[in-house]
Amino acid sequence: MGGSMNILVINCGSSSLKYQLINPANEDVLAKGLVERIGIDGSRIKHEAKDKEKQVIEKPLKDHKDAINLVIECLLDKEYGAIKDVSEIGAVGHRVVHGGEDFADSVLITDEVMKAIEKNVDLAPLHNPPNIIGIKACEEIMKDVPQVAVFDTAFHQTMPGENYMYAIPYEFYEKYKIRRYGFHGTSHKYVTERTAEILNIEKDKLNVIVCHLGNGSSISCVENGKCKDTSMGLTPLEGLIMGTRSGSIDPAIVTFLMEKENLSPQAMNDILNKKSGVLALSGVSSDFRDIEDGAKEGNARCQLALDQFDSKVAKIVASYMTELDHVDAIVFTAGVGENSISNREHIAKKLGIFGIKLDTEKNNVRGKEAVISADDSKVKLLVVPTNEELMIARDTDRIAK
């Protein structure tokens, strides 16, 4: 056949599916798209192949299997597709949110692996089920194509016990595996590797603090290229305040509110995950752009949300500096990290005590790689746009081979 096989990257949400077709030889994105409203009225696909017109196709899709069939149809289409035959897809890489303690690296999917992913559903009841459905659908449709699972938790499996254990009765760890897992691992790993390239430091000698700031936000502390600590916990709720998530709060608030408001665990979980965060503080939106606009117009609660977010990021970064003997760089990534000039400026200002200085002119950048620290800053500050799909494609290619 000659040439390298393309990798199809699949990221299944509960009612959505994002995909990219990537040629691992030159890392070209041949096609990408999004299927929305799976199993709901108005389901559709937005599909775009390299150098071709963007397509939006509305079509009833009852489940993820329908969605994946439609993705393949679009990829094969003579007019707006990217390949001539399904055999041009060499492997499929799936983003799986929770690998528990079972997986410290991406892995070829076997029956054993599926059992382990299913076992971890308890730990990620919202995310793992659609991931499992996506894998099964691909296995049915593309029978002989290797499927690889890439876990959001894998990169963080190198954390020492002092950073992943919770100070609650030990039996709960033994019974339910309650511990810190961390998420966004694929992003933290990609940004770590890319930072090593930019700074020309060997990856296993790099100490970096990665700030993945977006609608979901997490920070990781990386020592010699390996994760030492991260801000998300058993679930993605711990750590920073986020779009609609509370982040870390006094745990007694939970039981207090459940008693006062007569809330079920499900309702309480809903409040903390979907009704809190900067949405709750600002009263305006979970979108940082809307909140920045509100703050500019003098909305005090929008300003409060931004101030609290920046302050919390700086505090976690500062705490991670105590875990490293030196810091090569602090790196900003994801939607807010890559695009919010003011957030980066305020966070850097709070870290001034460490001899960290931002260069305002260099910081005037959105969505592209840049060193944004002043020349005399004790620690380099960088913007590195994340690319989870590319990281998944690299892992999938490596493992499928």
From TrEMBL:
ATP binds at residues 18, 212-216, 287-289, 335-339. Its cofactor is Mg(2+); Mn(2+). Mg(2+). Can also accept Mn(2+). GO terms for biological process: acetate metabolic process; acetyl-CoA biosynthetic process. Mg(2+) binds at residues 11, 388. GO terms for molecular function: acetate kinase activity; ATP binding; magnesium ion binding. The keyword Nucleotide-binding applies. The active site is at residue 152. It is found in: Cytoplasm. The keyword Iron does not apply. PANTHER family: ACETATE KINASE (PTHR21060), ACETATE KINASE-RELATED (PTHR21060:SF15). This is Acetate kinase. It comes from Peptoniphilus duerdenii ATCC BAA-1640. The gene is ackA.
